[in-house]
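Hello Y.,

Per our agreement to keep a running log of every chain we model this quarter, I'm adding this entry. I've kept the format consistent with earlier entries: sequence first, then predicted structure.
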Amino acid sequence: MRHRVKKISRLGRQADHRGLLIRNLATSLVVHGKIQTSAAKAAALQSKFERVIANLKKKSDDREAVRYLKSILLTEKAQKKVLGELKAKYADRKSGFTRITPISIQKGDATPKVQIELI
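Predicted structure for the entry above:
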């Protein structure tokens, strides 16, 4: 029997390492605006990041939003950018804050390489 069918990609890592990987990718995405990564990592990042922005828009108090962002993003620079620019930019948008575009295939392991960017 398959009781625990995986719903998300485990990315070949244990839970704590996978969580930190997603947090690192989210921080880089916010700071740089776009990053290049594998398709599996981008899909995992997109689902997490969409929920972060949607939940952030629901927060009414700035202190509550800062505490929430500290649990997700690793640097203060990224936290300030989300609160300053991105929250106002996505105020009228309900979803679809990121875009995944295929780029090429990695030479070493033939993994599809994509670019994920903020819209």
